[in-house]
Amino acid sequence: MFQSFDVTSTPEFGRERADALRASFDTLGIDGFLVPRADEYQGEYVPACAERLSWLTGFTGSAGVALVMRGQAIVFVDGRYVTQLAEQVDGSVFAGGDLVGEPPHLWLQNHAPKGFRLGIDPWLHTGAEVRRLEKALAGVGGTLVFLPYNPLDKAWTDRPAEPLGRVTIQAIDHAGELARDKLVKMAEATAKVGADALAVTDPSSIAWIFNIRGSDVPHTPHPLARAIIPTDGRPQLFLDKRKTGIEQEAYLTQLADLVPPSQFDEAIAALSAEGKRILIDPDHAPFALAEIVRAKGGTLVEAADPARLPRACKNEVELQGSARAHLQDGAAMVEFLAWLDGTTSGTQTEIAVTKKLEDVRRSVGERQQNPLKDVSFDSIAGAGAHAAIMHYRVTTASDATIEPGTMFLIDSGAQYINGTTDITRTVAIGAVPEEQKRFFTLVLKGMIAISTARFPKGTRGCDLDPLARIALWKAGADFAHGTGHGVGSYLSVHEGPQRISRLSTQELLAGMILSNEPGYYRPGSFGIRIENLVHVLPAAPVEGGDMDMLGFATLTFCPIDRRLVLPALLTDEELAWLDAYHAETREKLLPLLSDDATKAWLEKATAPISR
């Protein structure tokens, strides 16, 4: 299994570990210390050796930060993790904080005592974060202290070793562009902003630029590595050779000098000492890197990582590969849902069905000769009230039976060499109350609104976000997460800079892949989410219009549970979209199914809906 169901949260050690951290404060001359979820690479998924927030607090979510002070400690999380936080941490040690409404810098600005000295590990925070903290502390006469070592690491005596996951080559048949051509473009983009060299610190950018993939962190196939790409000269790739074989080393040495990761700081320092201008992304690079440049006499050029936008705007080969991966994944989902529908109600558990889905994905992958490489994240398999926990992770301690008369939410995804998938379906287990069907239909209306949207060039994610919410808003409801996130090409299932959310100011560009996943969650009762992946189409004329408009093409094909739809709440246009989507799903997936019973289930699940 790619997913573990073990209980990894350790809240029982929270007090002991927080006290051990506090014991270092006097020596370090600080009054508090920040422990972010991020590691030195600023990734969403981190290796076991960098799970500092989890080790300290017991919280295992993918977004959060702890502020440990002499007299109190706070763990800040966003709306997705409020319930999980309450279940996983010792509330007598750690209070809950609002990562969106009052994140650490605002909390310090509003509550920190005068003269407060906050310590941070400068390798775990970006330049943008540091500026926010410095401004907040200045308001209370405080100081941000950059520590020479991480005091938490000294207390963590059984810290795991750093990973050595094997690197693979992403063939041109899947990448669509040669690495040498990408390197030329990176050098040109660096020169355009007046820099002499680019410091690439995002492992996903490393994977994309060099057309390689890795296995250092769970579920995201990028290697933990960095690079320096000069405008004139040979690139350097800071990658542990123990992660490569003969073929990978031969390939990579044609593109760059392979250098031990431990020498990255020295290389940046040497360039800085020569007075070079070094491009660093302040939103994604660790602050310590910028400090090296300044301390050694270099010039810091702050600009966005030039790989982020081209990585987000998939080329035609990547889009075609993603479409094929989604059809294969859709076939697996149909086999899974048909099996789930045919099981005796009340006999399956959340873990059992999660295991079944992974088995089916593996089986279909073997049949299609496109193996399942990994899941793209730990599946969210929530029955009844568990579905109301937006990022619920089932464990052996929480595993529940999927009872008749409830809804079951399964949010899952897969990594294939030709694409990354992410799909959510909420299905009825037996007869469910009309109220739940009403909210399901309202969520569906939001998903259809995004699917059918047309929008002019320059439209941002925040401009489209209300379309997914308006039906819920009219019913006095909402959901506490973004409508959509970017998705990589056999890379991170959560990719930036593209998003559909209240906060996203990134313009949506042709080729970007995004999720479309409105939801509704009633704590302690039920939860609903419906999710497809879409990609942005180039601007095209609209019949009768006077300007070209962009739009979305759907990548995900899998039935939406018709039993939960109240047709009276759908407009004629919405119902026509749903019927057409189901007809296309049936047409595309039937040839990929091998079992007659599963084919019959798909025919029924995609039949037109009558009012």
Estimate the strand proportion: 15-25%
Globally, the shape reads globular
Largest sheet: 6 strands, mixed
Q: What gap, in angstroms, lies between the N and C termini? A: 43 Å
Overall pLDDT score: 96
Tell me the structural class: alpha+beta
Q: Helicity, in percent?
A: 25-40%
Radius of gyration: 25 Å
In the sheet with the most strands, the strands line up as 4-3-2-1-5-6
Query: Residue ranges: pLDDT <50 for 5 or more in a row?
Result: none
Tally of strands: 28
Helix segment tally: 20
Detailed description of the structure:
- With 611 residues, the chain is an alpha+beta fold.
- The strands form eight sheets. It has a six-stranded mixed β-sheet, sandwiched between helices.
- Helix 6 (127-138) links the parallel strand 5 (117-120) and strand 6 (143-146).
- The radius of gyration is 25 Å and the shape is globular.
Short characterization:
This protein is of the alpha+beta class.
List the helices and strands and how they pair.
Layout: H1 14-22, H2 25-28, E1 32-36, H3 52-57, E2 65-69, E3 73-77, H4 82-88, E4 95-98, H5 104-111, E5 117-120, H6 127-138, E6 143-146, H7 151-155, E7 168-169, H8 172-175, H9 179-192, E8 197-200, H10 203-210, E9 212-213, E10 226-230, E11 236-238, H11 246-252, E12 257-259, H12 264-273, E13 277-280, H13 287-295, E14 299-302, H14 308-312, H15 316-342, H16 350-367, E15 374-375, E16 380-383, E17 406-412, E18 414-416, E19 419-420, E20 423-429, H17 434-451, E21 454-455, H18 461-474, E22 484-486, E23 495-500, E24 513-516, E25 519-522, E26 526-529, E27 532-540, E28 549-554, H19 572-589, H20 596-605
Parallel strand pairs: 1-5, 3-4, 5-6, 8-13, 11-12, 13-14
Antiparallel strand pairs: 1-2, 2-3, 7-9, 8-10, 10-11, 15-18, 16-17, 17-20, 18-19, 21-28, 22-23, 24-27, 25-26, 27-28
